[in-house]
């Protein structure tokens, strides 16, 4: 009798749970299934996601202070507070259907509200939330993917990075962080050349690809070869940026290189990067 009663209780609980609360929601951004170490949740028929999904894959900048979260992108700013339904969007108060909250050391925020606030289109169908963000435009061409190539001792690897937020962020670094224009170095290669002081080796090649799989813009990053005595390297910048499309060279910074690499790492961790060629022996 006790077993029958227990079974009836479990069945009743399943009946009482709404389909939205029971469903496991999958998130797709720009047709890429987002990988996340913490699953999205449904609260009051609203999809709540870890803050990282927003900050890394939609391109919003995040400022966290005490329990206040400020998200900003372009000319739009949204401020939320944990366990508070009131938000401030561009200095105007609005009410959320669900409060942001913390669970298992993750901060959950409402996906649709934030995505639509930052100009993305959101669609829900059969357990999948699909978000379409604004593509990067170069010379009025929509960018489909970024191909990142780097070489190792015995071969090279090419990664294809999707996701408009990543394309926009990386392209912005190239455009805004390049320094003074300089002459092309006398010696530059894909590999190390330890025989020629002042020579450079290519750290990486970045091709912004259109929908017909053509590279419309290419940037190469070069690093100064070493080690050599300091007096032989005096006057040589440590990092150079080559705008291959315009055949122009610029001083670049190690900080900018690290920022680009962090974006590529985030793309890989979140499912937006795939290896399309690997010739490493």
From TrEMBL:
Occurrences of domain Copper amine oxidase-like N-terminal (ranges): 29-131
InterPro entries xref list: Cu_amine_oxidase-like_N, Mao_N_sf
UniProt KW keywords: Signal
Pfam families named in the record: Cu_amine_oxidN1
Cell wall biogenesis/degradation recorded as keyword: no
Signal sequence, renumbered to the chain: 1-22
Gene3D superfamilies cross-referenced by the UniProt entry: Copper amine oxidase-like, N-terminal domain (3.30.457.10)
Stated name of the protein: Copper amine oxidase N-terminal domain-containing protein
Organism encoding this protein: Lysinibacillus irui
Top-level taxonomy: Bacteria, Bacillati, Bacillota, Bacilli, Bacillales
């Amino acid at each position: 009798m006790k077993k029958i009663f227990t079974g009836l209780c479990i069945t009743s609980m399943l009946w009482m749970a709404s389909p939205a609360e029971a469903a496991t929601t999958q998130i797709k951004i720009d047709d890429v299934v987002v990988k996340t170490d913490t699953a999205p949740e449904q609260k009051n028929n609203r999809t709540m996601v870890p803050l990282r999904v927003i900050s890394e894959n939609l391109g919003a900048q995040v400022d966290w202070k005490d329990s206040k979260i400020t998200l900003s992108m372009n000319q739009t700013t949204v401020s939320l507070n944990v366990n508070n339904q009131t938000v401030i969007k561009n200095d105007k108060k609005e009410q959320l259907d669900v409060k942001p909250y913390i669970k298992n050391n993750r901060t959950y925020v409402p996906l649709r509200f934030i995505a639509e606030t930052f100009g993305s289109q959101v669609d829900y169908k059969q357990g999948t939330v699909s978000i379409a963000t604004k593509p990067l435009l170069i010379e009025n061409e929509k960018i489909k993917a970024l191909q990142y190539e780097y070489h190792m001792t015995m071969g090279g690897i090419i990664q294809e990075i999707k996701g408009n937020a990543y394309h926009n962020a990386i392209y912005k670094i190239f455009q805004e962080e390049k320094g003074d224009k300089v002459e092309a170095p006398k010696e530059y290669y894909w590999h190390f050349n330890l025989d020629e002081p002042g020579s450079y080796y290519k750290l990486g090649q970045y091709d912004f690809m259109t929908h017909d799989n053509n590279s419309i813009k290419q940037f190469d990053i070069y690093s100064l070869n070493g080690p050599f005595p300091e007096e032989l390297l005096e006057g040589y910048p440590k990092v150079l940026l080559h705008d291959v499309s315009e055949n122009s060279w610029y001083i670049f910074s190690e900080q900018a290189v690290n920022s680009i690499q962090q974006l590529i790492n985030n793309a890989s961790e979140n499912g937006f990067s795939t290896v399309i060629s690997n010739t490493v022996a």
